[in-house]
Amino acid sequence: VASWYLDGYDFDTIVREGFRYHMSVFMPKSVFFPAAVRAKMEDFDRMIGYRFALRQVILPLEAARGAKFKASFFIDNVGCAPIYRPYRLALRFRRRGRNEIVPLRQDIRTWEPGHTWFEETIVLPRALPPGEAKVDLAMIGDDDRPRVWFAIDGRTPDGWHPLADIDVLPD
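Now predict its structure.
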């Protein structure tokens, strides 16, 4: 970065082209940032890559165990690149100490910068006892643990985003 500055490179062009080419990583490691460009490069480093904002999730108020229901999702990638790892979007239903994770079919690697709206048909797990269940959302790895967080407030201690409650009806 210092040599770019000393050689007279246009930092506005560097930033613009970084966004244009959907830059995901900028790792100048422990290099010196001249004061004249430090804020611009730090802002650029914070803005590259993906950044998923959860705008809306529409779930039913109730569903029977084992029944199918539709859920709608509106996600906004406010970053400048997609994610490249094959993490899975999943809902978690919590009731009486029982956690049931339902991975969705949606491929999060298709979430380019901008808006994504999709619907999924979900089967409410039969293992949930009837009553009010908590519904959480996360992007999980193969071990079913959250790996990527949405740019929203609120997370459970184990990294899931709480969404809503749903009444689990007997089958």
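The beta strands are 52-58, 62-64, 68-77, 88-95, 98-107, 114-123, 131-140, 146-148, 161-169.
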